[in-house]
Amino acid sequence: MRAGARHLAVASCAAAALAAGFLSGMLDQQYLYFPDPLERADWARASGLPLEDVRMRAEDGVELHGWFIEAPEARAALLWCHGNAGNISHRLENLRLVHARGYSVLIFDYRGYGDSGGRPSEPGLHADAEAAFRHLTEARGVPPRRLILFGRSLGAAVAGTLAARHGDVAGLILETPFPSVEAVARSLYGGLPVHRLLRARFDLRRDLARVRVPVLVVHGDRDRIIPFALGEEVFAAAGEPKRFYRIAGADHNDTYVIGGAAYFDALDDFITFCLNPASSAP
């Protein structure tokens, strides 16, 4: 009877753990990821950009979709990791302004977003970014030393992990970032540990300890989704050389709009430093 009771207890605990894991995975889908499908359209014509459709495959076999936007005589290429909502078509205006500055860009949709297959998860998003990195460096032949990793919001955590894995890239730009899912949850819910209900961690603070490339943190001081103080925490966790660019009056999704030309000048200046660290002070 005692052995039977022990087996029953173990089985009950295992069932509870499986149920908790399933529930946390479901909550991730509900509270972290907000994908939209990509509408069928002539996006190159609509945007006026030389969009090239890109199909990539992550190591686990998931097929991904993105756009490569090549700039003539580009000084650098940006690998763009977008935020947790929408799809790549929602970034076209921003991409147009970046491309006008003379940068090539590869932007891709995570699994479950846009025209990419699969379902989003933390390991999956990191695998997707690795696939995009391989496409740029192997299929496109972009040298890592000419590659800037750019991540906005959730994408900042994705880009940060990629930078920790590939220390030979030129630099890392983190826009409206957060230190971890735990930090955001505690900030939004009065310190309550609601992050424990989620499976994803996206611990950018941990990954920054392994990043050895220049880092630029960009944050609006009126951000109502990721508080400005969390961006400051990310900056504190980054190693040197690093820069912090504060955009007065900017909310979470309008940094480049409110920032205007000065915002793009700050990005240009940082990228110039990354490509030639001896050219300017950090």
CATH architectural arrangement: 3-Layer(aba) Sandwich
Query: How much β-strand is present in the residues?
Result: 15-25%
CA-based gyration radius: 20 Å
User: What structural class should be given to the helix and strand makeup?
Assistant: alpha/beta
Tell me the domain tally. Answer: 1
Low-confidence stretches: 1-24
Mean pLDDT: 89
The CATH topology assignment is Rossmann fold
Top CATH class: Alpha Beta
CATH superfamily assignment? Answer: Alpha/Beta hydrolase fold, catalytic domain
Number of strands: 10
Helices, by number, come to 9
Distance from N terminus to C terminus (CA atoms, Å) equals: 70 Å
SSE pattern: HEHEEEEHEHEHEHHEHEH
Helix content: 40-55%
User: Major β-sheet, in short?
Assistant: 8 strands, mixed
What overall form do the CA principal axes indicate? globular
The side-by-side strand order for the widest beta sheet comes to: 2-3-6-4-7-8-9-10
List strands and helices in order, with pairings.
Layout: H1 2-31, E1 34-35, H2 43-47, E2 51-57, E3 63-69, E4 77-81, E5 85-86, H3 92-100, E6 104-108, H4 122-139, E7 147-152, H5 154-165, E8 171-175, H6 181-188, H7 204-208, E9 215-220, H8 228-237, E10 242-247, H9 255-275
Parallel strand pairs: 1-5, 4-6, 4-7, 7-8, 8-9, 9-10
Antiparallel strand pairs: 2-3, 3-6
Helix pairs in contact: 4-5
Protein architecture, described:
- The protein is an alpha/beta fold and 282 residues long.
- The chain has one domain: Rossmann fold.
- Helices cover 42% and strands 18% of the residues.
- It contains 9 helices and 10 strands.
- It has an 8-stranded mixed sheet, with helices on both faces.
- Helix 4 packs across helix 5 (154-165).
- The N and C termini lie far apart (70 Å).
- Mean pLDDT is 89; it is low at 1-24.
